[in-house]
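User: Hi! I have a protein structure encoded as tokens and I'd like to know what sequence might fold into it. I'm fairly new to this, so please keep things simple.
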């Protein structure tokens, strides 16, 4: 077993906190959020040993990215308004039925919006299309299963809503830069 310790400089954390609205970081809440693991942090930590000998600019950029990611985790600020309630409901549907073949029309109908309107308010609220968001959720679940289970790639693909192991592999590679089998080995 090997471990990696990453220390973020206090000035970097304070600078990022200031850029995010000046709130003092809540390290206890952050710790609680990270107990279940975080695929972004895991992937970044896995890539660090291979980045040995790079410039200080790379290290500073990685620290700023990691601080930004960590300080925005768990900020479950509820979005106002009925349209955003539909977005929250849409996200809940995606999470609940991750393994099922979901269509945009199905989700939009269940949240009582037209497809066009749902896509518009979803993108406005999340910064992503519903399809991209759902794919991200599925890849994050696949990462968790690859790290914590001995399920085959085919079983993981089914549990994460992919039609085949090849579809999982393509989406996984696009999002993470590695194939599921390579991710599992690391």
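Assistant: Happy to help. Inverse folding works backwards from shape to sequence: for each of the 186 positions I chose a residue that suits the local structure. Here it is:
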């Amino acid at each position: 077993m090997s471990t990696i310790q990453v220390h973020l400089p206090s000035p970097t954390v304070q600078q990022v906190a200031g850029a995010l609205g000046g709130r003092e970081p809540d390290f206890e809440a952050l710790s609680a959020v990270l107990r279940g693991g975080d695929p972004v942090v895991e992937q970044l930590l896995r890539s660090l040993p291979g980045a040995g000998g790079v410039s200080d600019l790379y290290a500073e950029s990685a620290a700023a990215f990691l601080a930004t990611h960590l300080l925005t985790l768990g900020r479950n600020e509820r979005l106002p308004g009925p349209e955003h309630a539909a977005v929250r409901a849409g996200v809940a549907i995606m999470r609940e039925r991750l393994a099922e073949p979901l269509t945009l029309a199905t989700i939009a109908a269940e949240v009582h919006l037209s497809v066009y309107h749902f896509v518009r308010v979803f993108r406005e609220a999340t910064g992503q299309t519903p399809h991209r968001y759902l794919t991200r959720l599925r890849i994050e679940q696949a990462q968790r299963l690859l790290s914590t289970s001995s399920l085959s790639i085919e079983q993981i693909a089914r549990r994460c809503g992919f039609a085949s192991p090849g579809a999982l592999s393509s989406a996984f590679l696009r999002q993470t830069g590695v194939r599921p089998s390579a991710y599992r080995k690391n």
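A useful reference point when you look it over: The chain has a mean pLDDT of 82. Feel free to ask if any position seems puzzling.
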